[in-house]
What does this fold into?
Amino acid sequence: MAKESETVSKKGKVAPRNPLPRRDPKERVRDFEEVALGFDEEAARAEARRCLQCKRPTCVEGCPVGVDIPGFILALAEERFAEAVRVLKDRNNLPGICGRVCPQETQCEKVCVVSRRGEPVAIGALERFVAAWEGEHMPEAGVPGFGTEVPKDRDKRAGDTLLSYELKHRGARGPKVGVIGSGPGGLTAAAELARYGYRVTIFESLHAAGGVLRYGIPEFRLPREILDREVEYVKGLGVEIETDVLVGKTVTLEELREEEGFEAFFVGTGAGLPWFLGIPGENLAGVYSANEFLTRINLMKAYRFPEYRTPVRVGKRTAVIGGGNTALDSARCAQRMGSEATLLYRRTRAEMPARAEEVENALEEGVALKELAVPVRMVGDEEGHVRGVECQRAELGEPDASGRRRPVPIEGSEFVVEADTVVVAVSTSPNPLLPKAEPRLRTRSDGRLVVDPETGETSVPGVFAGGDIANDAGTVIAAMGDGKRAAAAIHEYLQRKRGSGSQVP
It folds into this structure.
């Protein structure tokens, strides 16, 4: 165990946080390779020793999936790496993803006790290291079911525990459960249900699994080999994935229930319907929603044209409207496509909902930030192509419902930002296809499904939902938390059906 003397000096100051290495901005802006390099073993162990091993670990309370954070960090600090993998994956099926894209600074790290005296423990970076160690030293563990022998040079106790944990329900033949959507919520729900012993099938509308993890997050933040490994891990638990299946169009929930024998469902279809601003000129050529822009680049690999013949038009100057992670991803993609990107945000940098780390990365890479800029219309040429965005300058007023100060436009302060490509990245709504196809599913005014906040159950018995289709949180880890809770509720629901003849494990 890390002693407090190793972390906190006699004057009450904590040891400085180990910075996560990153590639040089001048080099990384030329490609789509990963920006952050991750800790090596020495740096990871040094950072792990900063953990105080609190008796009441508030960091765990800040984690939506309840990872035993002190437990995996202690194992890491003591070089029991296989045990660290086991502890971490006991609660988190996607550690390689979460270590890269979860907003730890607003969750587990925000409530880390060490942060009261200095910078919090780099929990996300340590999670990423453990996942990377598993990939390098235990590659077969990424696909459960590979066998029962533990190599002699491995921590026998931890290895046995890990294998027994992953193989516990291998081959179980419980009732069939369908998962709609293969984003973070769907993958988590599927993995948890497989561990309970159910026969799980994920139905994905696109040609590759991953949902927003694949089409929304660029490779320089989440390499596809990491995503593919995590998907293979879920499949290795016995989960089947059927792609190119649009539930609500090519097949309905009722057909899956009546004709294929599915007894329960988790809906995790996300929020794929883009918002626009409703200002003049949004129909001009060269104006994209962030959904289309990022899907073409990330899923369809437009940046590798002509190898992949899915081009996306990016001009010399790109204006991106918004201040969240999606807006930053769009701007940084535009930079890598050879455009000069400018981020237009109606508040100031201090109010941006994007991760501070990603804002810093974007600015290092040359993305310009225009604060207090409220778009009022798109400016076009005589041929119908966008040529700029007219904005009003704003000042911050009283806080709104989000708790942030409201931008108040200043009359007569109009100015134009030149741009021949514009990406609107302000928000999204749930895709209405499934709710419309299943009229018994009650929805809120914003199109999200009405669910029980504790279980995720919808208005249709046996149908549960989580992630952006049901909640407003909009983060990967929040969707995973929804998936985990819903899986437990589905298990309880199916257990109650035992008296009616269902064979539940």
User: Anything to note?
Assistant: The domain at 171-272+430-500 is CATH 3.50.50.60 (FAD/NAD(P)-binding domain).
